[in-house]
Design a protein that fits this description.
Layout: H1 7-26, H2 36-48, H3 53-69, H4 79-92, H5 106-112, E1 117-118, E2 128-129, H6 131-145, H7 150-154, E3 161-164, E4 167-172, E5 185-190, H8 199-210, E6 219-221, E7 227-231, H9 234-247, H10 262-274, H11 279-286, H12 291-297
Antiparallel strand pairs: 1-2, 3-4, 4-5, 6-7
Helix pairs in contact: 1-3, 2-4, 6-8, 6-10
Amino acid sequence: MQAARAANTLRGYRSDWTEFSSWCAEHDHEPLPAAAAAISAYLTTLAGHGAKVGTMSRRLSAIRFAHRLRDLPDPTENARVVAVWEGIRRTHNTRPEQAAPLMPPQLWDVLDACPTTKTWKTPNRPKEPHLAGLRDRALILVGFVAALRRSELVGLDVADLAEHPNGMVIQLSRSKTNQRGDVDELVVLPRGTLPRRCPVAALQTWLEAAHITDGPLFRAVSKGNRALERRLTAGVVNTVVQAAVVRAGLVDEAQAGGYSAHSLRAGFVTYAHARGASDRAIAHQTRHRSLHTVGTYIRVDTAWDDNAATALGL
């Protein structure tokens, strides 16, 4: 049962179910089995407090999951709940917030700002490769070129990499759209013409400096500048990207929240489209099942491309 859902999904369900159960206890409702009136009131409360539609949808999924685990009827399919939910979606739905895309030339500034040399205050201690900086550089470049999700990035092992004359091939055993690992998804990592912009070179530099030959690919680094056995968590990738854009001077700390790990994937799609790649070619790397989904990444600036409105001569 634990393996039936991704670990992140289960954590989210557990958190949402705890929140719903607490609300039920406070308002004298039974959480399991939950009555339609209780769920409707709960949704109304969330909407009244400004919860996003996506958040409420996840809460409903958690309630549905908890009932199905116990072979109980799904209370979210009740006509009353459905009606309230549709009303909320019609009146409270907003455009989903999208992470700002990180792509060239800003991406090059971010990479150049990653430290490469570690200096010490201790007298006579020699300089060393800055492992956290080298890791961040490799993480950002691989995340961008391979268009990986943050869970896919931190889930990579050295064994998932295969050498190729043109660079490397990453084999993903599982992903958001392939959670059971029914097929192996392959992602290419081509060599760059410039070493400082090459994801393969950045990855090899990190692995060699950190003395990593097997196990997790991207790891935590100690204050003593040593790579630990512990792999990074998905949340840390957001922190790495946000710290990197601030370090490069793209934004200040107050604005860094507009960037996240998803900025790398969004940046790949936006930049590849701007350079003439077709949606199908982009989806080949991003592994999107729907070309329509790829289109949602194309940002406002590309709305001017091949648009008849610009040729009206007004």
